Amino acid sequence: MSGPEQRRLDPDVDMAVPADRAELPTHPAAVLAAVSAGGVLGALARAGLSAVLPSDPAGFPVPTFAVNLSGCLLIGVLMAVLAKRANPPALARPFLGVGVLGGYTTFATHAVEARQLAATGAATTALAYLAATLAGALLAVWVGYAATDRLTSSASGTEPGQRPATG
Protein backbone atom coordinates (compact mmCIF):
# COMPACT_ATOMS: atom_id res chain seq x y z
CA MET A 1 0.00 0.00 0.00
CA SER A 2 1.28 3.46 -0.78
CA GLY A 3 1.84 6.13 1.83
CA PRO A 4 -0.61 8.98 2.46
CA GLU A 5 1.44 11.40 0.37
CA GLN A 6 0.89 9.16 -2.68
CA ARG A 7 -2.84 8.64 -2.12
CA ARG A 8 -3.91 12.24 -1.64
CA LEU A 9 -7.01 13.30 -3.51
CA ASP A 10 -6.43 16.93 -2.74
CA PRO A 11 -4.80 19.15 -0.17
CA ASP A 12 -7.31 18.43 2.61
CA VAL A 13 -5.45 18.79 5.87
CA ASP A 14 -5.67 16.61 8.96
CA MET A 15 -3.82 18.65 11.57
CA ALA A 16 -3.12 15.45 13.56
CA VAL A 17 -0.91 14.17 10.72
CA PRO A 18 2.53 15.85 10.60
CA ALA A 19 2.83 15.38 6.83
CA ASP A 20 -0.51 17.16 6.35
CA ARG A 21 0.57 20.09 8.53
CA ALA A 22 3.75 20.42 6.47
CA GLU A 23 1.71 20.40 3.25
CA LEU A 24 -0.62 23.21 4.32
CA PRO A 25 1.51 26.19 3.26
CA THR A 26 2.86 24.60 0.05
CA HIS A 27 0.08 25.46 -2.40
CA PRO A 28 -2.60 27.70 -0.91
CA ALA A 29 -2.82 30.00 -3.94
CA ALA A 30 -3.61 27.17 -6.36
CA VAL A 31 -6.24 25.72 -4.05
CA LEU A 32 -7.79 29.13 -3.41
CA ALA A 33 -7.90 29.86 -7.14
CA ALA A 34 -9.45 26.46 -7.90
CA VAL A 35 -12.11 26.80 -5.19
CA SER A 36 -12.87 30.41 -6.18
CA ALA A 37 -13.20 29.70 -9.90
CA GLY A 38 -15.32 26.63 -9.21
CA GLY A 39 -17.49 28.56 -6.77
CA VAL A 40 -18.28 31.19 -9.39
CA LEU A 41 -19.29 28.52 -11.91
CA GLY A 42 -21.39 26.66 -9.34
CA ALA A 43 -23.19 29.79 -8.17
CA LEU A 44 -23.95 30.77 -11.76
CA ALA A 45 -25.33 27.29 -12.46
CA ARG A 46 -27.51 27.50 -9.33
CA ALA A 47 -28.82 30.93 -10.32
CA GLY A 48 -29.62 29.68 -13.82
CA LEU A 49 -31.46 26.60 -12.60
CA SER A 50 -33.34 28.58 -9.96
CA ALA A 51 -34.44 31.05 -12.63
CA VAL A 52 -36.06 28.37 -14.79
CA LEU A 53 -37.71 26.27 -12.06
CA PRO A 54 -41.17 27.24 -10.86
CA SER A 55 -41.20 28.93 -7.49
CA ASP A 56 -44.05 29.70 -5.10
CA PRO A 57 -42.84 32.03 -2.31
CA ALA A 58 -45.52 30.71 0.04
CA GLY A 59 -45.06 27.05 -0.89
CA PHE A 60 -42.43 24.36 -0.99
CA PRO A 61 -39.11 25.85 -2.25
CA VAL A 62 -38.70 23.61 -5.31
CA PRO A 63 -35.68 25.40 -6.87
CA THR A 64 -33.49 25.19 -3.77
CA PHE A 65 -34.63 21.63 -3.07
CA ALA A 66 -33.78 20.55 -6.63
CA VAL A 67 -30.42 22.32 -6.56
CA ASN A 68 -29.39 20.80 -3.24
CA LEU A 69 -30.43 17.26 -4.14
CA SER A 70 -28.87 17.35 -7.60
CA GLY A 71 -25.69 18.85 -6.14
CA CYS A 72 -25.49 16.12 -3.51
CA LEU A 73 -26.00 13.46 -6.17
CA LEU A 74 -23.13 14.97 -8.16
CA ILE A 75 -20.92 15.10 -5.05
CA GLY A 76 -21.45 11.35 -4.65
CA VAL A 77 -20.60 10.81 -8.33
CA LEU A 78 -17.46 12.94 -8.03
CA MET A 79 -16.21 11.17 -4.92
CA ALA A 80 -16.73 7.75 -6.53
CA VAL A 81 -14.93 8.80 -9.70
CA LEU A 82 -11.99 10.23 -7.76
CA ALA A 83 -11.82 7.18 -5.49
CA LYS A 84 -11.47 4.93 -8.55
CA ARG A 85 -8.55 6.90 -9.96
CA ALA A 86 -5.09 5.77 -8.94
CA ASN A 87 -3.73 9.32 -9.19
CA PRO A 88 -6.55 11.84 -9.46
CA PRO A 89 -5.65 15.43 -10.34
CA ALA A 90 -4.62 17.27 -7.18
CA LEU A 91 -7.05 20.14 -7.69
CA ALA A 92 -10.02 18.11 -8.93
CA ARG A 93 -11.76 17.89 -5.58
CA PRO A 94 -11.12 21.50 -4.53
CA PHE A 95 -12.30 22.79 -7.93
CA LEU A 96 -15.23 20.46 -8.58
CA GLY A 97 -16.26 19.39 -5.06
CA VAL A 98 -15.66 22.44 -2.90
CA GLY A 99 -15.83 25.04 -5.66
CA VAL A 100 -18.38 24.07 -8.31
CA LEU A 101 -20.64 21.85 -6.21
CA GLY A 102 -20.13 23.88 -3.03
CA GLY A 103 -21.14 27.01 -4.94
CA TYR A 104 -24.01 25.20 -6.62
CA THR A 105 -25.60 23.78 -3.47
CA THR A 106 -27.04 26.24 -0.98
CA PHE A 107 -27.89 24.91 2.42
CA ALA A 108 -27.83 28.44 3.85
CA THR A 109 -30.72 29.38 1.56
CA HIS A 110 -32.43 26.16 2.62
CA ALA A 111 -32.29 27.26 6.27
CA VAL A 112 -33.50 30.79 5.48
CA GLU A 113 -36.41 29.46 3.40
CA ALA A 114 -37.44 27.03 6.13
CA ARG A 115 -37.38 29.85 8.67
CA GLN A 116 -39.44 32.08 6.36
CA LEU A 117 -42.00 29.32 5.85
CA ALA A 118 -42.32 28.81 9.60
CA ALA A 119 -42.57 32.57 10.22
CA THR A 120 -45.41 32.90 7.72
CA GLY A 121 -47.46 30.15 9.35
CA ALA A 122 -46.43 27.26 7.12
CA ALA A 123 -44.75 25.27 9.89
CA THR A 124 -45.76 21.91 8.42
CA THR A 125 -44.28 22.83 5.05
CA ALA A 126 -41.12 24.11 6.78
CA LEU A 127 -40.68 20.86 8.70
CA ALA A 128 -41.35 18.78 5.60
CA TYR A 129 -38.81 20.87 3.68
CA LEU A 130 -36.18 20.47 6.40
CA ALA A 131 -36.72 16.72 6.69
CA ALA A 132 -36.97 16.08 2.95
CA THR A 133 -33.82 18.06 2.25
CA LEU A 134 -31.81 16.32 4.96
CA ALA A 135 -32.96 12.82 4.02
CA GLY A 136 -32.87 13.54 0.30
CA ALA A 137 -29.38 15.04 0.40
CA LEU A 138 -27.92 12.08 2.28
CA LEU A 139 -29.70 9.62 0.02
CA ALA A 140 -28.58 11.50 -3.10
CA VAL A 141 -24.90 11.37 -2.06
CA TRP A 142 -25.21 7.65 -1.32
CA VAL A 143 -27.02 6.90 -4.60
CA GLY A 144 -24.55 8.98 -6.61
CA TYR A 145 -21.58 7.25 -5.01
CA ALA A 146 -22.99 3.71 -5.09
CA ALA A 147 -24.26 3.89 -8.67
CA THR A 148 -21.05 5.44 -9.97
CA ASP A 149 -18.90 3.00 -8.01
CA ARG A 150 -20.83 0.08 -9.48
CA LEU A 151 -20.66 1.49 -13.04
CA THR A 152 -16.96 2.31 -12.84
CA SER A 153 -16.21 -1.06 -11.22
CA SER A 154 -17.77 -3.01 -14.07
CA ALA A 155 -15.98 -0.81 -16.62
CA SER A 156 -12.58 -1.11 -14.90
CA GLY A 157 -12.84 -4.74 -13.80
CA THR A 158 -12.54 -3.88 -10.10
CA GLU A 159 -14.90 -4.73 -7.29
CA PRO A 160 -17.21 -2.00 -5.98
CA GLY A 161 -15.40 -0.01 -3.30
CA GLN A 162 -11.99 -1.14 -4.56
CA ARG A 163 -9.35 1.33 -5.76
CA PRO A 164 -7.15 0.48 -8.71
CA ALA A 165 -3.58 -0.51 -7.99
CA THR A 166 -1.06 2.32 -8.15
CA GLY A 167 2.08 1.76 -10.00
Automatic annotation (TrEMBL):
Taxonomy, top ranks, is: Bacteria, Bacillati, Actinomycetota, Actinomycetes, Micromonosporales
Going by the UniProt record, its keywords in alphabetical order are: Cell membrane, Ion channel, Ion transport, Membrane, Metal-binding, Sodium, Transmembrane, Transmembrane helix, Transport
Residue sites binding Na(+) per the record: G102, T105
Specify the protein name. Answer: Fluoride-specific ion channel FluC
Q: What is its main location?
A: membrane
Show the stretches that span the lipid bilayer. Answer: 29-53, 65-83, 95-114, 126-147
Report the membrane topology from the UniProt record: Multi-pass membrane protein
Q: Which Pfam families match?
A: CRCB
Q: Where in the cell is it found?
A: Cell membrane
Q: Which InterPro entries match?
A: FluC
Q: Where is the signal peptide?
A: none
Q: What biological-process GO terms show up in the record?
A: cellular detoxification of fluoride
Q: Which family does it belong to?
A: Belongs to the fluoride channel Fluc/FEX (TC 1.A.43) family.
